[in-house]
Design goal:
152 residues; Lipocalin; single chain; 2 domains
Length: 152
């Protein structure tokens, strides 16, 4: 082999290595699940701290109602599965299933089995914390301004 052929071969090998490396990095990047994937447990302390003051005072004035409302939330888990399916489990054994998707970087869409769509703003999404904000619709206000979850 002459010098020109060696240079061409060397350049071809470098180019091949570079392309192979980039393809491998791309495959690894595509295989990373979205950070929301996993099991999330309702954090009642943080969620209560963000509750509307008027609603909180009303609940505090009616201890039985407060206990009943919180019992529907405490222990609640949300499971976001990599394939886009979703399951919410309540402590009473009831569950909701459906699908989830992310619109833009901060909008979570959950579609239940009947086709109802719930849109929530992702306030925070870290490896250990998920904070969602429910939309305000008309005169109705959500019980919690922000719903806090910790990753299990």
């Amino acid at each position: 082999m002459n010098t020109t052929q060696l240079k061409s071969l060397k350049q071809a090998l470098i180019l091949f290595s570079l392309i192979f490396s980039m393809a491998t990095i791309g495959i690894r990047a595509q295989s990373q699940p979205h950070p929301i994937v996993g099991n999330w447990i309702f954090d009642e302390v943080s969620s209560m701290a963000q509750m509307n003051l008027e609603v909180k005072q009303h609940l505090d004035s009616l201890p039985q109602l407060r206990t009943q409302v919180l019992s529907n939330y405490i222990g609640r888990t949300m499971h976001f599965i990599e394939d886009g399916s979703y399951q919410q489990l309540m402590t009473n054994g009831n569950s909701l299933t459906g699908t989830w998707s992310i619109l833009a970087p901060d909008v979570l869409l959950i579609t239940d089995g009947s086709g109802n769509v719930l849109q929530q703003q992702i306030v925070t999404l870290s490896p250990s914390t998920l904070i969602l904000k429910h939309p305000v619709l008309g005169d109705t206000r959500p019980l919690f301004n922000q719903v806090h979850f910790t990753k299990n």
